[in-house]
Amino acid sequence: MVKYERSSLSGGDDVFEEDPSSQTHAANNGSAANATNNSSATHTPTGKMEVASNAPPEVRFKHLKGKGVNETKWKGQSVSVKLWWERSTLERILLVVCLLLLLTVVIVAIVLATTRKQEFCLTEACITVASSLLMSMDKGADPCDDFYEYSCGTWDKHNPLPEGNNRWSTFGLLWQENRLVLKNVLESELNTTSSAELKAQDFFISCMDEDSIIEKLGAKPLLDIINLQLGGWNATGTFNTSTYDFNQTIRVLGTSYSEQPFFSLFIAGDDKNSSRNILQIAQSGLLLPDSSYLINKTEEDPVLGAYIKMMVTIAKLMGAEEEDAHRQMRAVLQFGQDIANISVRDTNTEDQDPEMLYHLKTITDLQGIMPAIDWLSYLQFLFNGTDIEITKDEPIVVYAPDFLQDMSNLILSSDPIVVHNYMIWRLVTSLMNLLSAAFRQADHDFDQVLSGKRSIPAKWRFCVSDTDASVGFALGALFVKHAFEGHSKAKADEMVDEVKSAFKRNLPDLPWMDEDTRVAAKQKANAIIDLIGFPDYILNPEKLDASYAELELNSSEYFMNNIRVLQFHVKRQLQQLRKTVDRGQWEMTPPQVNAYYAPQKNEIVFPAGILQAPFYDKDYPKSLNFGGMGVVMGHEITHAFDDAGREYDKNGNLYQWWNNDTIQRFNRQTECMVDQYSEYDILGNKVNGRRTLGENIADNGGLKSAYHAYLEWIREHGEEQLLPALGLNHKQLFFLGFAQVWCSTSTPQAARLQLLTDEHTPPRYRVIGTLSNSEEFAEQFKCPVGSPMNPKDKCEVW
Ligand SMILES: [Zn+2]
């Protein structure tokens, strides 16, 4: 819900679809002392780097010419002419033959030298990676027709959807490997003194539930909460209207269970003063992932029909009578549809524009906007137990005030029993996966219709993901110790510098930018902080343990462990309010296969989980490392300058640092991309070019920066040895490596779900969209102008 806080690399559904909490818990207050990266700005203003590829042959030619033929001729011209005519015809012929022989030797030597340069890399890593690249390709496809097909055409044959998945990709494969590493660690005896690491293991054991404690408890843990703390549930006949207190219910839900049915309240950096944290409130989530599943739909619709079926099944499992379950759940669903009708859809630019969304208010103002809730008492209850005092003058950033106002009217005009039923249903859906198998089966049956997921994933996969979502930095310590090579951090740091320099070198070539903005953009790029691998504190047992000191976990209470984790993270977030923004705080755990840019911190983050093959490997050719990890880095750097990111200055403040003419010209460039991507479709459904704009800008800018960084690398280090069997040079391999990061497959339902909800373009078009804008790609694959991968009109933003 923290919508503008960060832009990640991948939607991640394929990566974290088994994560039951679906929320990324805020990171710990550790001190990732990854120094700022204000690398020296040594760049030439040309940006034209293609000349680098010709450098080695040119040098050899010059050498031959300078020291050979010319020099001899100059020194002894008159003497040699005289000697020539004193020779007999035979001698002259022999001399010519000798000279010819000498010339042949020289030519052969040159050819041999050239061949040695070009010979194949036959190390284990080169052979393995060449074979892995080949395995996914469809060499029968024309790269100029459809480069995704050429690169990934046979990928899904070797990588069918695994059990329990509705999408599968390179990201998913690597996440699967990371989870296997963690499974092996968590199932062995931990040789550690760190209490936090032992807590991670306890959490995992409680989830695996070898003694079937979860099964024996059935619905009881959740029923206890509802009946003892929330006034019961009318659907199950335990609701007492005479003692019902709406505000008390909503306070307990928010404080103890992090459940906010009618709004989304959080603490994060202030967009207009990036050093301070501030309360922020946005619209609530919906019953289904996108409002289009709810608006103007009836139970005849397959998804809505499956949803009501799941509601009834769960209500009955909780103790409801058949008739009550149907009637009351229908009313809850109707109320959920009413909320969808007033929700704001972010399909046009204004809705995504952070500047337009930002409204700085006080609690008194919020009370006026949303009078259905007693805000001061809500917040004071929430902060009870911390030393933070909240008054009616507390500032709060209000997003979507119209929604909050409509929501308030809807609550006040609806039947209080339906409103209460809805609140409890929201709690039930967020916790039901922690209950017995019957609950998880009902959820799965619904998911099968919504996303096409065919089976429930293996328990251990679910449990590793859940441990990551709950105590991810303790788990991250185990991951880093068992799977992360120490030198990768320094190598990645160096690579970020190289890609960032390439991004800056390109700035003078952008015709739409004025000189002042260019200078400021360079400053912003210099100010980007990068966090790589993991926060340092997790490898210091004392600091790691201190960060989890307030969290009690054990190996037998899975449900309660989750409740304690929820409360622990709520409290930790509340404690941030009076603190300055911590730039070392990570919002992704170390094992994750993803990356992000945080505009309020002007910070890019690359967890250890992604710094591995196929994104990066120290023994891989650099072409593949730049095409994989380099593009990821370029993507996150470019986010600092996408349609939303560009509104934040180098310190992370929302502030207009561009002049109006440049903004207008920038918007014209971006409109080109909106139109381009809106043309793409998956199974008859169009991509939303506007919602995906920020990600598409990042993809295009990232590809270009990484490619130029690679060209610079060649210029400094020379050409690399070829990979066997592929028949491609390294510049071509750069593009192939990039494309293969996006090899993927999904069910038709999951593809539709992604089009509706994900801010990223579907993988196929992340490849086609970016490469068809690249002159350099077209040049390397000799694609004729006008071929699908080399259209005459191209889009360029960065
Ligand atoms: Zn992104």
Automatic annotation (TrEMBL):
One Gene Ontology term from the biological process aspect of the record: protein processing
UniProt KW keywords: Hydrolase, Membrane, Metal-binding, Metalloprotease, Protease, Transmembrane, Transmembrane helix, Zinc
GO molecular function, one term: metalloendopeptidase activity
Pfam families recorded: Peptidase_M13, Peptidase_M13_N
Listed CDD domains: M13 (cd08662)
Record domain Peptidase M13 N-terminal: where: 143-535
Residues spanning the membrane: 93-113
Protein name per Swiss-Prot or TrEMBL: Endothelin-converting enzyme 1
Organism: Strongylocentrotus purpuratus
